[in-house]
Fold this sequence. Notes:
The structure holds two protein chains of two kinds.
Chain A: H1 6-13, H2 19-31, H3 33-51, H4 59-66, H5 73-89, H6 96-111, H7 117-129, E1 138-139, H8 143-153, E2 169-178, E3 181-190, E4 193-201, E5 210-213, E6 216-223, E7 226-232, H9 236-248
Antiparallel strand pairs in A: 1-2, 2-3, 3-4, 4-7, 5-6, 6-7
Helix pairs in contact in A: 1-3, 2-3, 5-6
Chain B: H1 2-12, H2 16-27, H3 30-46, H4 56-74, H5 95-113, H6 117-128, H7 133-140, H8 144-170
Helix pairs in contact in B: 2-3, 2-4, 3-4, 4-7, 5-8, 6-8, 7-8
Amino acid sequence: xTCPQALxxxxxxxxxxxxxxxxxxxxxxxxxxxxxxxxxxALALRQALRALPYRRAPDSLYxxxxxxxxxxxxxxxxxxxxGWLGGPFWAGALSGTAATAVAAAFSFLIFAxxxxxxxxxxxxxxxxxxxxxxxxxxxxxxxxxxxPWFAGHTGVSPxxxxxxxxxxxxVGARADFLDGERSAVVVYxxxxxxxxxxxxxxxxxxxxxxxxxxxxxxxxxxxxDLDFAAVSDMGEDEFSAFIRLYxxxxx
Amino acid sequence: xxxxxxxxxxxxxxxxxAAYNLARWLxxxxxxxxxxxxxxxxxAFRGFDGFRGGDAKPWLLQIVRNCWRDHAGRARKHxxxxxxxxxxxxxxxxxxxxxxxxxxxxxxxxAIGAIPEEFRExxxxxxxxxxxxxxxxxxxxxxxxxxxxxxxxxxxxxxERWLAQNEGSTG
Lengths: 251, 171
């Protein structure tokens, strides 16, 4: 670990490099045994760490911290989502007052019946899952954990490759319902952004190519006998890059 | 007043799990973690006017960290190690896999617990909370360069301890 490039290699693993710097770092890695070993160690540790059970705050703490929340569940759902959106993703753009306005807007959007049912359902499922404690049913960056879990819980088993080396870490999976049908959801993360890939048995329905709902982008495609939709709050370019990677990583 | 409370909730509550998780890793005790987070939420609410918008997560975690410091200062010599195992993996179908995963998790957890705090916290924030260098710098009040070198050191330390432990237990 005495390589002078060790910190840059680390930054690569942590997804902190822009594409140009990342390419340089990868080139260096190919020829540096120290850095390659450090990368392998760090990724192994990451996998182990992310497989640890996540310690969620107990309900009692939510009760203490929120006080009035339980009294007005519906308002708080909107408020929580707005807080979430107002925080990491619209960073700085929203003052507290604007966040409250957004909360009002969202509580309307989420509960209103969307014009295109499927896109709306997917966006809602995504937003709902971001409530504290709801994102994932199985937390793991190891597809050998995720795939069998799908088999046992959803009957649908979409690809779940860890794309951490490309900047999209696999965080886990959950089961959700789309139109009453069980779907498998693979959850990825890039920085503060969450990407979810929904997969369900196709029934020959035509899918739109893309849609956007509540500020989220949704892309659809078919593969084998499954229908897919990916949804995220990321910028279009990053999102396209993710979808290319995900689809390329087919098993 | 109610308005302010609502804004606070909207900003802070989504990060309550992260706050608790960090407190839990720092204090290594569920009950201390709860106390710390309660303190932190109260302090955060009082100081909410000083929050300048942007991402509330590093802001809140920095307060959690300060509360932990105070708490640790008050209650040194309180070593609740035995409690660590209690909240481990559940919901896994195969009892054997569950048991082996649980013991692996326990050895990793105690290895993490053995790393000095300043390294432990950057590792938790990076790997478990998935925060960027910049966010970790904001939460810990350290420059980014320091975050990077602590993270490298944390990884090396954890790897060392984890390997040593695994050798110790599996022969």
